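Hi all, long-time lurker, first post. I run a small reading group and we've been trying to get comfortable going from sequence to structure in the token notation. Rather than ask abstract questions, I figured I'd post a concrete chain and ask someone more experienced to write out its structure so we can walk through it together at our next meeting. Sequence below, copied exactly:
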Amino acid sequence: MRRVLFALALPCLAYAEDVPPIRGLSRTNLLEYHAKDGTTKVATSAAEWASRRAEALAGFQQVAGPLPGPELRCALEPQIVEETDCGSYVRRLITYTSQPGGKVTAYLCIPKTALAGTKTPAVLCLHPTENKIGFKVVVGLGGKPHRQYAQELAERGFVTLSPSYPLLADYQPDLKALHMPSGTMKAIWDNLRGLDYLDSLPYVDRSHGYAAIGHSLGGHNAIFTAVFDDRIQVIVSSCGFDSLLDYYGGNIKGYVQERYMLRMADYLGHPQDCPWDHYELIACLAPRHVFVNAPLRDANFRWQSVDRIAAAALPLFKLHQAESHLQIAHPDSDHDFPDTERFASYELIKRVLQPAR
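-- Answer (accepted) --
Happy to help. Here is the structure in token form:
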């Protein structure tokens, strides 16, 4: 099984001059930014790059819709629907109100040590595409193997929150009635409100931030959420992305669904014109810790594209003196989250959220 710390592989990857730009800026030399005088410059500090970061997030919102403002931050009104004793932890099926008229169903797993008074870090666990059981897969209640990361992290002593993803399984919010521009933005908002809920729990230790982990749909959901909220200090994305230019050879119709971003239809046949791409989103996560699982035989997302994105993003991590914070793993597997990579991501979460005292 091949596993790579990306920084060690960098010398064999160079900027690709034939990769088309995004919004007039290099997609591979991500240090380029639009200066106030209208010229294109190269950032030499994180402060200089802030304008490109803002432009990248604006480009994403041009397609996914705007991030809601404080007017939607209503009372959470959490309710416990059922509770199950799982040995070392308790699993609660809960609901919380993410916006007026919109309740989210989620699983909250709480180690018994936390309930006994030991403050414990928390992880947002975002599930993959699962039309039948939805969020149940991450707490080990069925579905494919290697997706039960909420269960395994709870067993390792972390509080885990696993919200449902919009328009999958039993979670069918009316996006139009809720004034949500896309399923993607609804998921982001539900996740951010989930962090607000974790903030409110007396047994959660948030002193070192939170982690977000997800496979496939959950992998890009974790990225999309984290770029808008730096409470998330560790991002684990398994089989979650490649460049829009490489996704099924540039055929981005998979994104054109109500649960994703219907406005992606505007760029069918010419993905290079889409105002966002994972090149910039990964760079936007710097200097936080990012662990990417990109299998060699993943038919959904190409590992070579992931490496090109990482090569482009790494200078941003260097700009923050945090180049070791970007890790890419390449297991010899298909679209999966094997034990070796999954357990390695848990160790990273533990190292960052529970540093040795």
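A couple of things your group might point at:
The chain has nine helices and eleven strands.
Confidence is low (pLDDT under 50) at residues 5-15.
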